[in-house]
Amino acid sequence: DRPNTLEFRDRAERTEKILQRLLDSSPSTRQFASGARSTAMLGRTVYKVYRDGKKGAERACFSLCQPDYFYGIPSGDGLLNDYATVYYSYPIDRSTANAMYGQQKYQTEAELSRGNFYDVKPEDQRNDIGRASARRIPVLEVWTKTSYARIVGGITIFNGANPFKWSDSGEGFIPFVVID
Q1: 11 CA to centre of own chain
Q2: Are 67 and 87 a contacting pair, CB within 8 Å?
């Protein structure tokens, strides 16, 4: 009972072209391939889910995360991918931090870790020059179903309600998918 008219075929072809363009513009094939390699080499794959696009035309997206930077506390025994709290930490460059979060006095990994030692000798501080930890700014995201916090270089950027909520129930969710 499908209409077999030229108008119907034209609409079907245009729809197919639009869908193909969307698929071609999506990096999902690369993301899935990277995720498969991550699982094979590191034992698990972690994706972070996010929204992209203008209000009303948003689409669901995902990005591959470094599994070593992810730590999730399960909400109960045997509940896979249901976490009570997730800690996700990763480094960014100072210029990226300034561009994303504004010009602030962000502390580097080296500066934040100095407090872990007793008096650092001046000759040891010299060795920080050129080291990666002296250039990287740590970002920490802490997620629960009700709250979210982002701390960049020791400065709290956001600390409030979880922005990810199910549209039908209004309950918050933690936007990570873990494949073990």
Answers
A1: 37
A2: no
